[in-house]
Design a protein that fits this description.
The complex is a heterotrimer of chains A (124), B (424) and C (339).
Chain A: H1 6-29, H2 36-39, H3 58-90, H4 93-117
Helix pairs in contact in A: 3-4
Chain B: E1 39-43, E2 55-61, E3 64-71, H1 79-86, H2 92-96, H3 103-118, H4 124-152, H5 156-177, E4 186-187, E5 190-191, H6 197-221, H7 225-231, H8 239-244, H9 250-254, H10 261-264, H11 285-312, H12 330-335, H13 337-348, E6 355-362, E7 367-374, E8 380-386, H14 388-400, H15 405-415, H16 419-423
Antiparallel strand pairs in B: 1-2, 2-3, 4-5, 6-7, 7-8
Chain C: H1 6-39, H2 55-65, H3 76-93, E1 100-105, E2 108-112, H4 120-129, H5 131-141, H6 145-176, H7 181-187, H8 196-199, H9 201-214, H10 226-229, H11 239-264, H12 278-300, H13 308-335
Antiparallel strand pairs in C: 1-2
Helix pairs in contact in C: 1-11, 2-11, 3-4, 3-5, 3-11, 5-6, 6-9, 6-13, 7-11, 9-11, 11-12
Classes of the chains: A mainly alpha (124), B mainly alpha (424), C mainly alpha (339).
Chain lengths: 124, 424, 339
């Protein structure tokens, strides 16, 4: 059952090997001449002020939450999509389609609500 | 609190397009869950989109610019002071380096100020050559605007398309002035040498071809939905704001103000040329883009008229015959004692009469003015350069606050300045 | 000839396909410069090898000898591992792409793909979705503000477009009734009218748009956007680690192009030649894939870049409703017996 996944492991080994070897070679061959100037983060040539590790705008989290909502939705649609043709052949296609439409309709309403609330407006 | 000074623009003064975004920085609260911490970011001086060494310190909330402050001075070379120590004539090469994408225009601006002070009349043909050079420079400068702004907004191929034509201009200028970039070809009283017929031919051939290139640029950008969305409604400057912030040139005209020094206070015989002044309606980046595109077309028209006049006045003088300020012809210097003395005086001890003068020209960026004051000696008392770029830089916070960080590059590009003249 | 053990066949197939992927990615880095040069009155690299063909190799060697910089304040472990994390998923996703039908390899009959999974389209999405980790971690661990902004943008963008990508693929899945890419490709085999580009044109359009966004390519390359973020998530990277980010990007482009070929252009199928041998199928597959790869370059060097909010608006307010509508329109048409 899991046999088809073995070649993926082989590919993983190959790809990891390539990445590690090329990075390792780069570490070995590249000449290191560190200096303070080189090791400062890029800030257009000025002194770095403050840290880049800070609390971010909540908007990014909002996008993430919305993504999870709709991602789960699309995951639930996968089995139906695969079986759509066989439902059709079994003669229950329109019925199942109506049920799925109800499911997505609820989420669509959710999307409409978020839209109306301005959750999708990046520039607020 | 940060040490950045936030300009206090009244929310009402901001254009409606920014709407709810301009409701003051709510992020000052330390524990505001909606806004996170402000990311204080130094954009420039070493940044690809700041067109030289401008530094803009921005404070970002997510992607939104909460405050921003442009800082200039990274390219300050003390040009105005240099003029005072160098003397009148030797400052010409330095004017090249002000707005270095249009050196000849700066040359003419400075020369006009000196001529106003000394009361020198430039011969007809000299004026025509100057107009020709200025309009070609204007096209070259607008091409730089177009190419660099397009590259900032991601249309990289535009940059090469515009630079290809600019290269042609530079080749022709090279054939005429002997330099591609820092030409220093204008003198007090006219221009250094007459135009060669070959140069005239090359120019008229190029001018005939160039409008098709503008059409091509427009095909690339004007109707492009992404370009339109990136520029329309971005950096809106109303007419009143533009006047209050003393903007000039395409930035002022883009805001709907019909103001062009070539029409309003003509110099070098501009009143006798036929051309139109394009004016925007909204005052956003897209309007400024359209204004500059149309200005290039108008410049082609003016340059073609100038070429026709050159053909009509062939053989006439291009340099005034005023031995107090203008070098005598070299042939005469070798044969005549008086001319040798004049040459010596002009080179070593060029004195302008006591007094002061201000003369402004319509450069590609706006009103480029030179204020010169003389105490009658060979050393200038004061030379002040009114560079339009500085005013353009000042306008950045006016339009950038409350906008997205990506708009910053569109705004900087559309305001169009060259740090060489901003910092002087 | 003795039959080769199965595992060796697997290793050979994996090595060949992986090598081909890397070669295509390397050639893409050359094609990018060549195509842009042709569009910009330039010549492009032409010094290393004929037509500059060895340029990618020379670049690789150069990157190896470059100095590796780690900015102060960076998280060294994450900073070092991020490029590999960004490159690996794209390299792994190629495993299930069916390049051609059955071939005979040293006595073993096998298919020309690393493996065949019954859920291969889910596998591509799952593995491909991991690519964002490398970009986020690389940007965040650099301790540079520009990198941070770049990786934030990248993450928001990729999750936004993944939805439409999945939904557009689902329309195709519904049409062929299988998640197996090989089955999807074979279902379109018989006739060009059965190609999904003809049966689900809207899904194709959505997929192509999402394909650009998912690989962070122009006009959606906000994570990098040189004029604003000066490189974005890879601002602080140098040497081979910098190169690996790009290798990953080109691999992702290649895999996406393969996916588009399989999903919408029937893989290696050739119209009016139903029993084409495997090499003809492979050639046809590569031609179709190259067309998509060229589309990437064509768009890159022609269009301006979107703004970030416009990108999010397009993703959430245009593409997502459209993709939902498209899925149901497809299902409804199927129910009506049209498709």
């Amino acid at each position: 059952m899991l046999t088809p996944y073995v070649p993926i492991l082989i590919l993983l080994a190959l790809a990891t090997g390539f990445s590690l070897v090329s990075l390792g070679l780069s570490d070995l061959l590249g000449r290191l001449r560190p200096s303070i100037g080189k090791s400062t983060a890029y800030e257009c040539g000025m002194q770095v002020e403050g840290s880049a590790r800070l609390r971010l705008s909540i908007h990014f989290y909002l996008v993430a939450v919305l993504f999870i909502l709709f991602d789960v939705e699309s995951l639930l649609l996968v089995p139906w999509a695969v079986a759509a043709r066989s439902f059709q052949e079994a003669g229950v296609g329109p019925l199942v389609l109506a049920e799925v439409a109800g499911f997505v309709g609820v989420l669509g309403l959710g999307l409409a609500w978020v839209w109306k609330k301005g959750g999708l407006d990046w520039d607020r | 609190m940060s040490s950045v000074q936030t300009f206090d623009y009244a929310p009402g003064a901001l254009p409606a397009a920014q709407g709810s975004t301009s409701e003051g920085p709510t992020s000052e609260l330390p524990d505001d869950p909606l806004h996170g911490e402000l990311l204080r970011l130094s954009m420039g001086p070493q940044h690809p989109a700041t067109h030289g060494v401008l530094r803009v310190v921005v404070e970002l909330d997510g992607e939104t610019i909460q405050s921003c402050e442009p800082m200039v001075g990274f390219l300050h070379r003390g040009k105005e002071k240099s003029c005072e120590s160098l003397g009148w004539a030797k400052f010409f090469p330095h004017t090249d380096r002000l707005d270095y994408v249009q050196p000849l225009m700066n040359n003419v601006g400075y020369a006009l100020a000196l001529e106003t002070l000394a009361g020198i009349a430039v011969p007809e043909r000299g004026q025509v050559v100057r107009v020709l050079l200025m309009e070609v420079s204007r096209i070259a400068a607008h091409l730089i605007y177009l190419g660099t702004t397009a590259i900032d907004l991601g249309a990289v191929s535009m940059f090469f398309a515009t630079f290809k034509e600019r290269e042609n201009i530079y080749s022709i200028l090279d054939a005429y002035t002997g330099h591609r970039m820092n030409n220093t070809y204008v003198r007090i009283g006219g221009v250094y040498c007459d135009v060669d017929e070959n140069v005239e031919r090359a120019l008229s051939e190029w001018l005939g071809r160039f409008p098709a290139c503008i059409d091509e640029y427009e095909k690339f950008l004007t109707g492009n939905r992404i370009w339109y969305d990136r520029n329309r409604g971005v950096g809106v400057i109303t007419r009143e704001q533009a006047l209050a912030w003393s903007l000039s040139g395409p930035n002022l005209r883009g805001s709907g103000m019909d103001w062009d020094l070539r029409k309003r206070s003509p110099y070098s015989g501009y009143e006798s040329y036929e051309f139109e002044i394009p004016v925007g309606t909204v005052g956003d980046a897209y309007d400024r883009y359209l204004v500059r595109i149309e200005e290039m077309r108008q410049s082609v028209k003016i340059a073609q008229q100038a070429l026709a006049r050159l053909a009509a006045t062939r053989g006439a003088e291009v340099l005034a015959e005023d031995r107090r300020y203008v070098l005598p012809p070299k042939a005469k210097v070798h044969s005549s004692m008086e001319e040798l003395i004049f040459q010596f005086k002009v080179v070593t001890d060029l004195c302008l009469p006591r007094g002061e003068a201000y003369h402004a020209i319509e450069s590609s960026k706006g009103e480029l003015g030179f204020y010169v004051a003389s105490d009658g000696t060979s050393k200038p008392l004061r030379c002040h350069i009114r560079a339009p770029g500085l005013q353009n830089v000042q306008a950045i916070p006016l339009v950038a606050q409350g906008r997205l960080f990506s708009d910053m590059v569109a705004i900087i590009g559309s305001l169009d300045f060259v740090m060489g003249e901003v910092d002087r | 000839m003795p039959e080769l053990p199965l595992w060796l066949v697997w290793v050979i197939k994996a090595a060949v396909i992986y090598g081909a992927l890397l070669s295509v990615a390397g050639l893409m880095s050359l094609a990018e410069r060549k195509v842009s040069a042709w569009m910009q009155y330039r010549i492009g690299p032409n010094r290393v090898g004929p037509f500059g063909l060895l340029q990618p190799l020379a670049d690789g060697v150069k990157f190896m000898f470059k100095e590796e910089l780690v900015p102060a304040g960076a998280n060294p472990f994450l900073f070092r591992i991020a490029p590999a994390l960004a490159a690996l998923p794209a390299m792994l996703a190629v495993a299930v792409i069916p390049f051609a039908g059955e071939i005979e390899l040293f006595g073993q009959r096998t298919t020309l793909s690393v493996t065949d999974l019954p859920i291969s389209s889910l596998y591509v999405l799952a593995v491909g979705g991991l690519g964002i980790y490398g970009i986020i971690l690389g940007g965040w661990s650099s301790n540079s503000k520009y990198s941070l902004l770049g990786s934030l943008r990248a993450s928001a963008q990729m999750v936004s477009y993944e939805l439409s990508l999945i939904l557009s693929i689902l329309a195709v899945v519904a049409l062929s009734g299988s998640l197996d890419l090989r089955v999807i490709a074979d279902a379109q085999q018989a006739d060009a009218a059965l190609w999904n580009i003809a049966r689900a044109p809207l899904a194709f359009l959505l997929f192509v748009v999402c394909m650009f966004a998912e690989t962070n390519r122009h006009p959606f390359d906000f994570a990098e956007s040189e004029p604003e973020l000066v490189g974005g998530f890879h601002t602080e990277y140098s040497a081979m680690r910098f190169a690996l980010f790009f290798l990953g990007e080109y691999c992702a482009m290649t895999v996406m192009s393969c996916l588009a070929t399989v999903l919408f252009l029937a893989g290696g199928a050739i119209p009016f030649w139903p029993d084409a041998p495997w090499w003809a199928e492979l050639a046809s597959f590569l031609v179709k894939m190259s067309a998509f790869l060229f589309l990437y370059l064509w768009v890159r060097w022609t269009l301006p870049r979107f703004r970030f909010d416009q990108l999010m608006r397009l993703g959430w307010k245009v593409l997502l409703p459209l993709a939902l509508f498209n899925l149901f329109a497809t299902a409804a048409l199927m129910a009506a017996g049209v498709l």
